Amino acid sequence: MKCLFAIFALLLLSYTSNCQPDIKPNSVVPSPKQLNYQALEMVGFVHFNMNTFTDKEWGYGDESPTIFDPKKLDCEQWVRAAKDAGIKELILTAKHHDGFCLWPSAYTEHSIKNSPYKNGKGDIVKEFTEACAKYGMKAGLYLSPWDRNHAGYATPAYITYYKNQLHELLSNYGKISEVWFDGANGGDGFYGGAKETRKIDKSYYPWKEIREIVYKLQPEALIFSDAGPDIHWIGNERGIAGETFWSMLDRNKVAVGDADTDYLNTGDFYGTSWVIGQCDVSIRPGWFYHAKEDDNFRTPAQLVDLYYKSVGRNAVFLLNIPPNRDGLFADKDVAAMKKFREILDNTFRDNLALNAKVTASSVHSGSAKFAPGNITDGDLNSYWAAADNKCQASLEIAIDSTKKFDRILLQEPVRFGQRIASFDVQVMRPGGWQTIASGTSIGYKRLLKITPVAGKKVRINIWDANNSPAISNFGLYKAAGGDVNQ
Ligand code: FUL
Q: What is the Å distance from ligand 1's center to 358 Cα?
């Protein structure tokens, strides 16, 4: 009987807490597709095109298609290596600034159809998207707005051409998850033989119409550019987000190819649109493969550090791996990526705070739905929230005093907006509370590196927030070998 009563009470409690409305969201929140994208954490870039064969970073546009011939091209090798590194989406340079197209576009002769690759019958965009589909990898495409080959560049004719190419790419290759619009634009080039400098101004590209094409043909795709609207550049090509990073931006303050890099690097606490920050960086010095850089790639430890400085600061990590002239990722790059993932997995395998008891200075409506213990239950969907009128609160987490930790993880339930603006973390030492870390923004994920410490309680103090604070996940970890403080 007693048992039946307990079961009934539990059911009632879970029913009433499920019925409880969520906390009031901020006025700026992510779209469902942005929420999913942020949770990918890590995406990959594949810079592979004419430059791979000319040893350049920016081709002039007069390169002959006859030199494009990757003899062992295997897009599945790229996808498998990316998957092993924890990459969830790959973005291919279908066309870079030199204008050469990796698919047999109907609108130009400057493409793979005039190359020796598969006797002109090849289509690398097709091979790439099929390989992605086979392994459950999302596929994205980079279609450079700047085209140093096209005779009509800087005139309306090129805009028509560009839109036609977008139509081809977004209609014929299945689901495309991201379209990447680069900001580099206008300058000297071949331009159909004119060999001159062509400048364009901000009004040249009809961005609104271009975005409409993307959303019409691929409604679930996200658009990247300096100005979003879904994902924005982080303001440097080193893969590093600002120590403080807001997922909000004032989109009136940014434009493709003309944005304040400091602004992009921190986002905007007062921003009126949700735009995810994306940290792009190459595993090698160049974006494209150069044999002379074969011994100059980022070490696993450096890649792990970049993960802390991108994902660990509320942004998404975009790592470029350039295939070589055979059309394959270099073995050394693959090994470094694999080791990188191993180190991360080892560090974040055991959460010392998992299932720990938690108390809070304030709990929204006193309901179990917002219970402090939700931050250590291992479920990203459940969350603790303070009462509506509070912008400050603290939580105490009981932990095993014998175990040292040196990594702290905090996550906000960002579907309600990014709220916390200042916090610190303390540990109970024999002499009292000792502050071990402090920070500003949290967002989707905040990772903190500290010197190893142990204690029987940890306290999170939230000092400032733009709405009642909420946390969905908290973790304490011990760094694995290769995960170093830098
Ligand atoms: C830049 C381009 O100019 C580089 O070549 C590279 O594609 C990088 C990811 O974006 O703006």
A: 46
